[in-house]
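Schema walk-through. Below, the input block comes first and the output block second. Nothing else is stored per chain. Lengths vary across the set, and this one has 234 residues.
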Amino acid sequence: MGKYKLIAMIPARLGSKRIPKKNIRFMLDKPLIKYPIDLLLGNKCFESIWINTESEELGNLCKNMGILFYKRPQELATDKTTNREFVYDFLKHHDCDYVVMVNPTSPALKKETIDKFVEFVQGNDYDTVLSVNSIKTVTFFDDKPVNFNPNEMLPSQLLSPIKPVVWALTAWKRKTFISLQEKGICPVFGGKIGLFDIPEDECVDLDTEEDWTIAEAILKARKEKQGSVRYVEL
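--- output ---
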C-alpha cells in the first residue's frame, strides 16, 4: 500500500452561493459529488475515504454511495471557512500520515492522475503537495513581466512555465499541519512543498456557471471521442 498511511477526504458543503447546491446538482448523468467518489472507490491506495460536510443529508447520501461521513462543526460550514480550519478539525479526529483532499469542484479529474499523485506523495517526503497547472505563456504581474524578457522574445515552448495552484488534489502531512496550526502558522503552504502537475483538461475548477459549462463540455467531449484523428484532404 505504500510507506505512508493515506486517507482521502472530499470537502463539500450543501449550501453554496456562486453555484447553488452544486454538490447535488447533476453534471451530465450524475450529481457532482459522485465524481470524486467514483474515482476513489476501490482505490487501494487509501485506508479510508471520507466526505467532510456539515450536512446530515449530504453525508448520508455519500454514505449510501459507499464512503464514510465526517460531520464538521456547524461553525466551519460558512462560505468564509478556509481549508486551514476544516482540514485542521478533520485531522484532529483522524489518524494518518497524510490526508489527500480530493476537490469535488474538479470533476474532470481522471483516476490515473490520482494514482500518479499518490505515487508522488508516497515517493517523497513533502509536508505539503499542491496540484498545479504548468503553463508556458507570456505572463505579467503588477504590470511587470514575470517569466520573460520583453527585449528578448522567445518561442512559447522555451518560456519558463508559470504554475498556478488548481486545488484539484492536495496532500498534507498530518503531523506538520497540526503542529504549524497550533503554533499560529498557516499550514496550508507549510513545510517542504512539492508541486504536482495536473493535465490541462483536468484543471477546470467550478466557481461560476461558465466553469460549469466548460467542465460539462470537457466530459461530454471525452465520451464522444472516437480516438480517430481526421484531416482535410489536400
